[in-house]
Amino acid sequence: MIASPYLLYLGHSNDEVGIKTSRGLAVFRPDDCVGEFRHDDCGLTLDLPRMGFAEAVAVGARTLVLGIANAGGRMSADLVGDAIAAIEAGLDVASGLHHRLREEPAIVAAAARHGRKLHDVRDPRPGIPVGNGKRRAGKRLLTVGTDCSVGKMYATLCLERGMRARGMAADFRATGQTGILIAGSGVPLDAVIADFISGAIEDISPARTDDGWDLIEGQGSLFHPSFAGVSTGLLHGAQPAALVLCHDPMRAHMRGLPHYPVPGLRETLEANLAVARLTSPEVRAVGVALNTSKLARAEAERLCAETADALGLPCTDPFAMGVDSIIDRIDQCFEASPRVATLSL
Amino acid sequence: MIASPYLLYLGHSNDEVGIKTSRGLAVFRPDDCVGEFRHDDCGLTLDLPRMGFAEAVAVGARTLVLGIANAGGRMSADLVGDAIAAIEAGLDVASGLHHRLREEPAIVAAAARHGRKLHDVRDPRPGIPVGNGKRRAGKRLLTVGTDCSVGKMYATLCLERGMRARGMAADFRATGQTGILIAGSGVPLDAVIADFISGAIEDISPARTDDGWDLIEGQGSLFHPSFAGVSTGLLHGAQPAALVLCHDPMRAHMRGLPHYPVPGLRETLEANLAVARLTSPEVRAVGVALNTSKLARAEAERLCAETADALGLPCTDPFAMGVDSIIDRIDQCFEASPRVATLSL
Fold first, then answer.
1. Domain D-glutamate N-acetyltransferase-like N-terminal, which positions (chains A, B) (predicted)?
2. A72 has a chain B CB within 8 A of its CB
């Protein structure tokens, strides 16, 4: 367990995509984030108090989260120095980088010297089983996408928040490093050995009998030639009762692959439903989530309405407009979950 | 490079499936296999001369191949002892087990002491790239299956042999431990990190400009809930011009999953073509390979004829009946490859 609250590391970053893990924590776990650490040349902020390591410890911080992605996923000498300084000030360190903290002898030595914990979030737990495809109890919703990085984690977390606001039992199941840091557990699916993709998902979302929902963060896309294997195993392991399709209308081509066009929404939905049916024959689509952060509000609303009409599904920007329409559809499609919070009158 | 010729290990095995790697080598690389090592309680044989380690060295053996699968994939104390005795007699050791030779200190020490090499075939090479899906030159054929272990490796190797017999340039590309030991190279796809499945295949079957064929060994099945992610990434990485569908007509249910029926041949073919089209839009099916080893010959021939009629594709048992009909279809579908061997008259 990673001890909170956190100090979020921005370092020298000037690339918005590079700090998406720190930002994810600031947005979805604001109560666990006491401040941000950045150097003078860092042009970005999470609108948290800027503080040094000793200062953060003084206000209660327990862990420095290296919520950034460097080019190549490696830790620079500079980053290693900051991590050691944080350890010496009394902080644990958590990282989602490919370059593991435990592979950096100076960091390991400093942690040993000061009795601090290191958390490499991208290490899958040992002993993940092979998937068995057995039907298991419980209602699971999986977000799927036309492409990578189209808002699947945001949509899933917004659904968790929205369902809980209605008193429904609902739990986010993380499959990526940012999600794991936000949730405190999960599986870094991109780091699992190929034979265990579906088994890893069966493992983090086991049978559930309280009639609540597991909301599983999607990864990749069936139409992304680099990562469709991950998406396929995730669909099979999830055994979803419900799918939410995520899409970024500003995406010009598949992420990182200018020679591949983004597939159509209907085509994406049909392909995902077909693959999911192998382990979950009754699976159905319950909504579409658009990332409209780069559009004017009126344009975004027009696009959602058009998409909803075209696909016959509720369509929203979960972060900007909420998820009520999708939860309404879930309530229509599935026996309404008992509300876990009751009012005493 | 694993030094040949080989001594094939059977040990105490009495399970035919457990010795499939040793048998694969005996069948497809007979010239590289000088003998078999088995204890008195081993009820199986590859019909090779039985010999001890010193005797094998005396007739020229260079490497002991641990071509067996133990329950749990671990090396027993007994197996470790045999490996050390082989090293002391002057043999290198190669293994495809999950339990690595290099994880067994006594074996590592013995190899160091005697200057012998250890080969863990199930280790992917470091630095496998993420797949990029870029169209690359060359003709590639991939075997796909209704299930795991239905004869994909045998069919692929028989196609290599058959094409070479006609003077075509054709090379087997291995994706499993047995295939890697037979070919001397390849990628153990089941041991690759999930994000790199398609990249691993792009890596072992790069652009080819001699107008010959890469024949890529398939893995798993799109309809196997445990392993369909591997099969999906393999289809995308392979960019196959041609698919051969492999099937075991005696299979009662999906391997290891009694709750999953085996899919139909037509359904399997259509699903594989649809997935393959993402990176290879012109892909086509060129044949069906049935494993009829448990059927009488007349029954096997009847089944092949019926299957060919139903699917409009040549159908054969590659090992028992040859692959001429499939190569004829390939020659009809694709510009005939120039023959690399010419007769001097």
1. 46-124
2. no
